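Pilot study result, target chain (158 residues):
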Amino acid sequence: MQITVNGTSHDLEVAGHETLLGLLRDRLSLTGTKLSCGRGECGACTVLMKVGGARQHTVYSCLTLAAACDGASVTTIEGLGRPSLHPLQEAFIAHDAVQCGFCTPGQILAAAALLEENASPTEPDIRAALSGNLCRCGTYPKIVLAVEAAARRMASGG
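Predicted structure:
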């Protein structure tokens, strides 16, 4: 299969049971994508994927078979802010939206997908977009503030 991850093309042979999460973490050493529940319920494994001309969207990499990603372009947290931090990453730092940090990559990537579709989301829009990403530390208010701040900054061209 051929897959582009964070802008780098890879030609790989994958087993029928191999997940995108396993491919990213174990074979490409991109450990920002986390395994937590393994059932698509927590969002720690969230990445962005684009297939063909479709719009980039979030996927739970723990539930996505690697073989189903042939021809896809995937963005992980490691590729989001290349070469410098993405405004969302900066806002999460500035607003202390990172506590233990385990959920942060998935939260940021879900927020990036939201801001790609809706440059000026309301608080309910943000909460709905991030509802598939659990934060065991309860940092939700700070996460929402960070996404709002990043949206404002991105809208102003910064």
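One observation from the pilot: The longest helix spans residues 140-155. A full batch analysis is planned for the follow-on phase.
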